[in-house]
């Protein structure tokens, strides 16, 4: 496989035979940005020379994978267990032999699902490192796919891609913005949300943004949609995009009260 250019700002790898490398189209979109020093690229080979991945428990029974020192947006991925094999939720740019060996100690991976295009990263390289496993992306974000691989788009509001792992599409941040519902480590239900439902500094609350770096709020109708879409699902915990960004308890009510607070600050109601 060619050593694809990887955008230093967002961490997404690009097929050179399909897209030019003048500008990263994900970063020129108004949800993201090109750094003050202009467009810059690296490669997986260069990343492996200066970075490693930490694989550790985010919670007992839920393992995460994150790059050190932090690269690009700095998210960590999660290995969501269940019948039919592990799901890699969200993705990171660095994949290497030691990481693959460590993940294989937990049973490897059966599939990948990603919340939104900022985290597409080296998804094809991750897929091929585990035998070409499918990568599930919402069809409404298909235009942002920058690398060819075993990507499978899905449509609509929900899709169970592995037993007990159901993708939900609140449409926050991107039209295809996705979260995954599963049983959680204690059987009481959990959401992994990336930054679609963003766990904020006060871990009793979440928020909803169209753009985080450019501070553009999400549309009120989308916030209402999120509450309605999640209402049939029970979940006690939310795992956000970064290490330690967790709503540890009462998470379903946290989404509702956070949406209400958000809307009240706009002079609206839930």
TrEMBL record:
InterPro entries: RibonucZ/Hydroxyglut_hydro
Protein name (record): MBL fold metallo-hydrolase
Organism of derivation: Rhodococcoides trifolii
Organism classification: Bacteria, Bacillati, Actinomycetota, Actinomycetes, Mycobacteriales
């Amino acid at each position: 496989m060619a050593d694809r250019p990887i955008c230093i700002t967002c961490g997404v790898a690009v097929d050179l035979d399909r897209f030019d490398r003048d500008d990263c189209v994900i970063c020129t979109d108004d949800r993201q940005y090109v750094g003050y020093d202009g467009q810059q690229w690296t490669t997986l080979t260069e990343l492996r020379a200066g970075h490693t991945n930490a694989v550790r428990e985010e919670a007992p029974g839920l393992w995460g994978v994150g790059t050190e020192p932090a690269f690009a947006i700095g998210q960590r991925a999660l290995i969501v267990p269940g019948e039919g094999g592990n799901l890699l939720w969200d993705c990171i740019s660095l994949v290497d032999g030691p990481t693959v060996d460590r993940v294989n100690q937990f049973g490897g991976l059966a599939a990948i699902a990603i919340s939104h295009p900022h985290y597409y990263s080296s998804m094809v390289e991750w897929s091929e490192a585990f035998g070409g496993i499918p990568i599930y992306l919402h069809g409404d974000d298909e235009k942002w796919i920058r690398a060819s691989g075993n990507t499978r788009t899905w449509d609509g509001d929900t899709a169970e891609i592995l037993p007990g792992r159901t993708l939900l599409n609140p449409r926050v941040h991107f039209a295809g913005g996705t979260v995954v519902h599963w049983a959680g480590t204690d059987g009481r239900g959990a959401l992994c949300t990336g930054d679609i439902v963003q766990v904020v500094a006060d871990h009793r609350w979440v928020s909803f943004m169209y753009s985080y770096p450019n501070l553009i709020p999400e549309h009120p109708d989308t916030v209402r949609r999120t509450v309605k879409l999640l209402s049939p699902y029970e979940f006690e915990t939310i795992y956000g995009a970064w290490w330690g960004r967790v709503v540890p308890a009462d998470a379903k009510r946290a989404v509702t009260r956070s949406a209400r607070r958000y809307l009240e600050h706009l002079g609206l109601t839930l």
